[in-house]
Amino acid sequence: MYTILNKRNYILLAFLGILIILGASSFLYQTLNGMGVTGLREPVVWGIYVVNFTFFMGLGAGILMYLTVISIQKGISEEFKFFSSVIAFISLSLAGVFILLDLGRIDRFYYIAIYPHPKSPLFWDFIVLNALLAMSAVYSYLSFQKIAPFKFQLLNIPALFIGLVFKKANDLALRIGSFITLFLITALYFITTKVFTDTAARPEWHTPLLGIIFIISALLCGLASLVILKSYCVDTAGIENNKPFSDLARRLSVFLLLLDVVMIFLNYGIGRRNTLIQESQSIFPILLLLSLIIGNALPVFLILVSKKNKIILNRIVPVLILAGVLLKRADIIISAYFRRWIPLAFKISYVPTFSEILIVLGVYSAAILAIMAIFYSYRQKLK
Questions:
Q1: Is the same domain home to 163 and 312?
Q2: Single pTM value for the model
Q3: How far lies 320's CA from each of 86, 87, 222, in Å?
């Protein structure tokens, strides 16, 4: 069973509810009065919204990449697979929410759908996001069919059909299908990084390493989220006691963290040789250094010295990794907006407005509340 929510969490629920109300009020105020309330101006345009969009897109895609492998592994509980797919779906939904916030008004999303513009980066983000959302929904549905009582099942005819097809397939076919799906998810996510590298106004993103950096960070985010989820699992037949998974997660984390550092320094070196971005590469040296310390150095150190401390390995290290990736996203995204202001770089800083902060906190709170509600509902079902 899963222990995320109990009856003594009313204070937390009330706090989350207040943040949601404040965030919704701020968004309504922003919608009625225009994006000017967020301090919309040069040199930074919607910095915090774009950063969160890229972060949650990568988080959702990363979890889906692991799900393609986990879904065919034996010894891992179906509950874990289900909640992993749910978190992927929620993460991708959050990415969609931040796209709406970038647009300023919800109704503009409607125009993207009815008037598609293939040359627009937003168009491809829209396509990829919906494709990944559909995949996460399919994973959630198929996993739910395996853990829910008959009375909770929906659309049983498609589920039975899919089940019959998979029963007749051999293990090799399933594995081949899994890796094809993994390739498709990776390719779809790579398209979003290609959108960034093709943006003419941002030469900071014109590097072949950006896509690799984004995929590595997506894998790091996905793995960190799965480790956190595992730490809340108390299923003796499931992943909590799956020691090979824990050992593999630690080794893979160290490998990806070190590879991330190598790619960042290679990318930084390439940028320093580009005269268009020599100065802008140094606008946020403290932020980049902080992200490397928090998101790379500390996690590696803690993994190596805390081999048996579950609190450190399953809670602290994953949170540090997620924080580091978010900071790296801020460094990559926000720095590019300062290029035209290079002569005045020493006078420039970016601080989100109070309205933006409330909106972001409200969105985060709604996501946390949704996850808690799903986990709590499942616990009640088990009783």
A1: yes
A2: 0.83
A3: 22, 19, 13
Burial class (CB in 10 A: 0-12, 13-18, 19+), 146: middle
Burial class for 39, CB neighbours closer than 10 Å (0-12, 13-18, 19+): middle
Domain count, the chain: 2
Domain that holds residue 365: 1-39+361-383
Tens digit of pLDDT at every position of the chain (383 positions): 344 445 567 788 888 999 999 999 988 888 777 766 666 655 555 678 888 999 999 999 999 999 888 877 777 777 888 889 999 999 999 998 988 887 766 766 667 667 767 667 777 788 888 889 988 888 888 777 777 654 444 444 444 444 545 444 455 666 676 778 888 888 888 887 777 776 666 666 777 788 888 999 999 999 999 988 887 764 433 444 455 567 788 889 999 999 999 988 887 776 555 544 444 444 456 777 888 899 999 999 999 888 777 788 888 999 999 999 998 888 887 777 665 544 444 445 567 778 888 999 999 999 998 888 887 777 666 55
